[in-house]
């Protein structure tokens, strides 16, 4: 194994643990709430989609910070790197304080917009309102994790994320069944766990900043610079979330069985997708560091190796998920119709995982290079390609297992293929390879 492979794995393996811990929150919530009943599980599907959408729209707090911090670290300026990390955390805290009450107030409208009503809608609103107070913590986790990744430290986020996942599991069981809060207890448990994770990560970054003499107070210019750098990535994320929301809307229209099944398939997809994204995290940090030190040969080497690892990991994960699909369906529901739908959806999703490995790694390479503007446009193009396919599924697909299978053919096949084409086209050229401490 080459030294580059070892460095990729040294970053990717801890990042894998941290990234897998995050979707475990959703999996634990799904397993605990699923045994309350199908309406509760369907409500959680809608609520978690809205919550993850809000947090996902702010993922630039991690991505932009990782790229900027890594570039300055590569250029030899650790003080500037940590100052950028501090500015990112101030931006995250401000956004969280604004978005938390907004999410709680808009919960009924958001759930209705996804096409739900009756008990399903009621459970979704309850979960959202109890989980909303944890939103500032969720955003601070993104920003602090991005800073640490840029400093080539993926171990600390791993420890914190794993601890948070365990705490979330315990809190969910205690609050949902022990205290008898039902789905509200699941939302509250997630909020408390995220706030605790944020507190630990913020302390770690602040200690690092103090050690090198970086200022801890908010700098308006730095916060604005972080916001500007994140704007194209926000557009990219909006396009991704639109595709995900459209998928949930289609599932809702196909009935509670498809919607409940989609919640489980999507949770497993999230687990495997974040696992593949560990390689993208390594690519972000290493590409940013190499561009900061003006080593373009190393940039190309990182691109080749991480893409190879990504596709190979997708193949392995796809085989495992396809073979384990019947077993994976059982812990989440006792409804035979939902179980059949879960198995069908998981088999289709598994077939798309090698392609997903390609997509996620190339995304990471371009994000690490600060090529957000291209990614923003590419995101809009891919959504445009996906919309007609999703609408066709909504109009003509049957309910039950076959309907969920067609929905995942559209999402895992058409949408991911469009993303693969746009990122591959860009990576073949050199326009994204801008070196120096800041992208021009």
From TrEMBL:
One of its GO terms (molecular function) is antiporter activity. It is a multi-pass membrane protein. It is found in: Cell membrane. It holds the Pfam family MatE. Keywords: Cell membrane, Membrane, Transmembrane, Transmembrane helix, Transport. Its main location: membrane. CDD domains: MATE_DinF_like. InterPro entries: DinF-like, MATE_fam, MdtK-like. One of its GO terms (cellular component) is plasma membrane. The chain crosses the membrane at residues 45-69, 90-110, 130-151, 158-177, 183-206, 242-261, 267-287, 307-329, 341-362, 374-397, 403-421. NCBIfam families: matE (TIGR00797). PANTHER family: PROTEIN DETOXIFICATION 44, CHLOROPLASTIC, PROTEIN DETOXIFICATION 44, CHLOROPLASTIC-RELATED. Belongs to the multi antimicrobial extrusion (MATE) (TC 2.A.66.1) family. This is Multidrug transporter MatE. The lineage of its organism: Bacteria, Bacillati, Actinomycetota, Actinomycetes, Micrococcales.
